[in-house]
Design brief:
By secondary structure, this protein is of the alpha/beta class. The protein is built from 13 helices and 9 strands.
Length: about 325
């Protein structure tokens, strides 16, 4: 089995693969169902999750697949007894699921799992690896963007904790792939700026991007504002309190910011939010984050279906 049957990072998808996934997601959203009764999905989460785990499990259930799950692998698996990730994955692959949806605090964990699973026929889905990537979130984010504002020549502002947030990283890679005319604007306090690796990637791929420290000046002509929280779990406690205070003071989105946005622009957030979007904004039709979260189910149905029918992700 090649790596392409796994879902590990945003850069792996071809544009045609993305289009096919979105067409299937659209069909599932219109009510399409399947009965993959002989398929089994494991969800193994070593970090907390609400949306990713529930939407994957709902997707598996809607496809008629079986599912086995631990919602807290850190405490309720043999990890507490000192078992390595490699051993756990090797054992789980021996039970012959079709896919393992893995969330882990270590960057690169999904790649390690994919190597361990080699030859077993089990697909690994990266549901977040530390500050690395979250490719299925990026797919549902892009699916939402295309549905709501279109797909070409967009100005997308991505802000918040760009140093540690895996959703922002994965979305930037994906947008760079599908829209050669995209204009990316990254907004973050200096301590949370985007990593050099992505900037290098964008530069090499001729993607127009800029970095700003002020939010207000980016709002007027943006098509998408994609906001993220400070990643508490990846920052030392003492730094976190200061960074969150700065985030709330300088980067918290309120109705006053919405007034500056275009009438057809959208405000997105992978959620959970931790104060960086005020709840008074929720009633505005441009607040798209709950629609975005709901898109996780049809999109993840499309991903699982592709695995069940053994079509590679390339
Ligand atoms: C994100 C994650 O886990 O990276 N959540 C999600 O999957 N929707 C974002 C976050 O936790 O900040």
């Amino acid at each position: 089995m090649t790596q392409s049957t796994h879902v590990l990072r945003s850069q792996q998808f071809s544009v045609s693969c993305i289009n096919e996934l979105f067409a299937r997601a659209e069909a599932f959203q219109r009510g399409g169902r399947k009965n993959y009764r002989d398929k089994i999905v494991f969800t193994v989460f070593y970090e907390p999750s609400t949306r990713t785990r529930f939407s994957f499990e709902t997707a598996a259930a809607r496809l008629g697949a079986g599912m086995v799950s631990t919602e807290n692998a850190k405490e309720f698996s043999s990890a507490t007894k000192g078992e390595s990730l490699e051993d756990t994955i090797r054992v789980l692959c021996g039970y012959r699921p079709d896919a393992i949806v893995l969330r882990h605090p270590q960057t690169g964990a999904a790649e390690i799992a994919a190597e361990v699973s080699e030859g077993s026929g089990v697909s690994i889905i990266n549901a977040g690896d530390g500050a690395g990537q979250h490719p299925t979130q990026a797919l549902l984010d892009l699916y939402t963007i295309i549905k709501e504002v279109g797909r070409s020549g967009l100005k997308v502002v991505i802000g918040g904790d760009l140093a540690n947030g895996r959703t922002a990283r994965s979305l930037a890679y994906l947008l760079a792939k599908v829209d050669p005319n995209v204009h990316l604007v990254f907004v973050a306090p200096s301590a949370l700026r985007l990593g050099e690796d992505i900037k290098q990637h964008l530069f090499e791929n001729g993607v127009r991007f800029e970095e700003k420290e002020e939010l207000v000046e980016t709002l007027q002509d943006a098509d998408v504002i994609y906001w993220t929280r400070v990643q508490k779990e990846r920052i030392a406690n003492s730094d976190y309190e200061n960074l969150r205070a700065e985030m709330l003071l300088r980067y918290s989105i309120t109705l006053a910011h919405l007034k500056l946005m275009k009438p057809r622009a959208i405000l997105m957030h992978p959620l959970p939010r931790a104060g960086e979007i005020h709840p008074s904004v929720d009633g505005d039709s441009r607040a798209a984050y709950f629609r975005q979260a709901a898109n996780g189910v049809p999109l993840r149905m499309a991903i699982l279906e592709r695995i069940f029918t053994r079509i590679p992700f390339e």
